Amino acid sequence: MTNIRKVAELAGVSVATVSRTLRSPDVVSPATRDKVLQAVNEAGYKPNLMAVRFRSRRTHNLVVLVPTIANTFFARVISGIQEAAQERGYGVLLCNTNGHEETEATYASLVTTRQADGVIQLRAYNPFPEDADSDGTPLPMVNACEVLDDAPCPTVKLDNRAAARLLTEHLLALGHRRIGMIKGPRRSPLTRDRVAGYRDALEAAGIALDESLICPGDFTPRSGYEAAGTLIARAEPPTAIFCESDEMAIGAISCLKQAGLAIPGDISVAGFDDIDFASYSDPPLTTIAQPAEAFGKQAVAMLIDVLERRHQGEPHRMLPHELVIRGSTGEPAT
Hints:
Elements: H1 4-11, H2 15-23, H3 30-43, E1 61-66, H4 72-87, E2 91-96, H5 101-112, E3 118-121, E4 141-144, E5 155-158, H6 160-173, E6 179-182, H7 189-204, E7 214-215, H8 221-232, E8 240-243, H9 246-258, E9 268-270, E10 287-289, H10 292-307, E11 316-319, E12 322-324
Parallel strand pairs: 1-2, 1-3, 3-4, 4-5, 5-11, 6-7, 6-8, 8-9
Antiparallel strand pairs: 10-12
Helix pairs in contact: 1-2, 1-3, 3-5, 4-10, 6-7, 8-9
């Protein structure tokens, strides 16, 4: 195991300062604390605290790892986390990681250095070392929203495949047969599952998949705008577009309007999430509603159960979804 002296050397501080930072982080400056934590992570130093944390005093702080705080859906999840944590007497340390694994690992080390009690991870990645739970101690983490297939901790998610199938079936029922899709990030399990649901609906309707109608995106309005432009430039453009997020759908609507197309008169657009802006877009957006705040509240409750060693029943929870039909979808133009 790496010596604490190595951590001190990497951080450019004394051994006493490293010890003080790990023992009482509130008494050192933020700059020093950051240097020491970075050195701890770089050196792979693992104080034997993962098991001790359950019998020592708690910080009553929860670390929340969010891929991007700018995403409106995640903002609602965080709101639910904060409300539930406050009700239980916990504080929230919000970490905007941009999906960087090293950043997530650094913030997760706040738990092993006793500056926080547990982690709520909103991305499909385990930021703890592989052997973090090798002694039988439950991993102090809940994975919510975008979850690992074989998560080593409790999870809370949506049945994204079933939800995407439901929305695609709505478009099919309106009479659409050329349905475009704007996907999310390539590596995201959300993207994989929503594409699978879209494929399921087309196959059940006896419609062959046209790969040219599937465009990449990244859940941002800009990617929706750009992908919509690509789709309508096809020799045979779609009569409807299913966007894997509302933000991409709003971007797509902007592009289509600038191209002189009426929605839904010329082309239908649907989204996913039911963010607040969805009901105020022009026209109001048909979408899949998922209970964002409930994700946050459920994740907090499950994590505190882990921390307090309480039996929590089913460790993998599935929250409900709902098809919300608004004015952005209609029958295809004749």
